[in-house]
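The data layer described in this paper is built around a simple, fixed record for each protein. Such a record has a labelled line for the sequence and another for the backbone structure tokens. For reference, a complete record is included directly beneath this paragraph.
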Amino acid sequence: MSLDVEPSEPPELEEIDPNEYEDAEVVGETDYKREEIEELLREGAWEQAFEAWADRTDVDEREFEIVSDLGMLEHFDFFWDSFADRVGYHAPGIPEDWKERGLHPDLESWETVSEINAALAELGDTVSRTLKADYIDWEADYEAPDDLPDFE
């Protein structure tokens, strides 16, 4: 399946400590290189990754309209994780209390919520991998401590 929509503008990255996300495990220094990543997103990484994602996503135009109406793409976060030598990300998601909150009139089932949340996680992963493979040539700054035991 393919989603035929124009890529949105890339998200503006805020200074958030990734360790504050309940699903994050980020170890290492606190230079998350958000300014550099935001610039790379604007220079084409976002559009390239978005188009690759749109070519294979299961999200249809109606579901994407929900994502757009809720402004979800603006809430992605990308950051450099020097310990893992990767671009980490946090994808926005529709909260569990979506029904009680009446988030969107076209949001009618848990299946749709699950599809949207999974698709946004896939978009985050695609952007992260695209940045690392095609745009970033930084070396990991992490160095193992000198006092590790010798296991030879």
